[in-house]
Every structure is written in structure tokens, then in C-alpha cells.
């Protein structure tokens, strides 16, 4: 039996070498810098092939992920939240992400994929608000120092 590495992306050739199912599994099971790399790769895959990612997520069905201290959440929705928050937190909210969501919205105006797009849009907006609040707090800190 071969153990599947979880954590350090270097131990399995980097996140870009992983198939989508393993990328999602490793991302959900890792933390710290490794998870940032994995969720960044998920974001990139969504931007490159949004239909592939969204269809895969719908095929996950009602699968749930449990996080200590939280109620179980549908795994597909959790992955959507991570993809959207990665764009907001790591990239400051890109036009490419916004355009990809808009294009997907035209393709999938209703149904489960539309619900996943709703999750992404809500999380992206919330992530942008968190980013703006962080910038305001930092600016207030800098202003207080002068």
C-alpha cells in the first residue's frame, strides 16, 4: 500500500501535478502554507477550466466536510468558498475571477451549479470586505504612528 502524502506540496510533485480529486482532498486535509498553495492551484484551475471544476463539484453530491467546532458543511460549497476567498485574500479580487463568475452565470442560470456560483459570489464579496477592513485597520495603525 502506498501512502498518499498530505501537507507539503513538494512531497508529491507540487499542486499543479495533482488530478482535481486529489487536489481537493489534499487541500481540505492540509493547513498553513501547503493549503495556501493547494487552494491557489484550485483557484487557477477554476479560472482555466471553470466548467470542469464546477461539474466535478456537483458530482460530489451531498458529501459533507466536518471541521472541528463547526457544523458539517457541503464539501462542494466549502471548496467554492476557498476558491473565492483565495482570489480575494491573495490577489485582492481580480477582474478575471469576476468575469469568470459572470460567464459561468450566463451558462448556468439555475440549478446546482448556479447555487455554487452564489456561494462563490457571497464569499468573494465577504473576502473583499475583510480585505478592505484589514487595509483600513492597517492605515489607522500607520496614521497613529505618525
Task: Write a structural description.
With 146 residues, the chain is mainly alpha-helical. It contains six helices and two strands; from the N terminus they run αααββααα. It has helices spanning 20-29, 32-48, 50-59, 75-91, 95-107, 112-145; strands at residues 64-65, 73-74. Strands 1-2 form a two-stranded antiparallel sheet. Helix 4 packs parallel to helix 6. The longest helix is centred in the C-terminal third of the chain and has 34 residues, at 112-145. The radius of gyration is 17 Å and the shape is globular.
Q: Features of this protein?
A:
146 residues, mainly alpha, two-stranded antiparallel sheet, 6 helices, 69% helix, globular
Helix content range? 55-70%
The number of helices is: 6
Radius of gyration: 17 Å
Helix-and-strand structural type: mainly alpha
The chain-level mean pLDDT equals: 88
Number of strands: 2
Q: Describe the main β-sheet briefly.
A: 2 strands, antiparallel
Low-pLDDT residue intervals, each spanning 5 or more residues:
1-5
Summarize the helix and strand pattern as letters. HHHEEHHH
Tell me what portion of residues adopts beta-strand conformation.
under 5%
* Principal-axes shape call: globular
Between the first and last Cα atoms, what is the distance in angstroms? 61 Å
- Strand order of the main beta sheet, please? 1-2
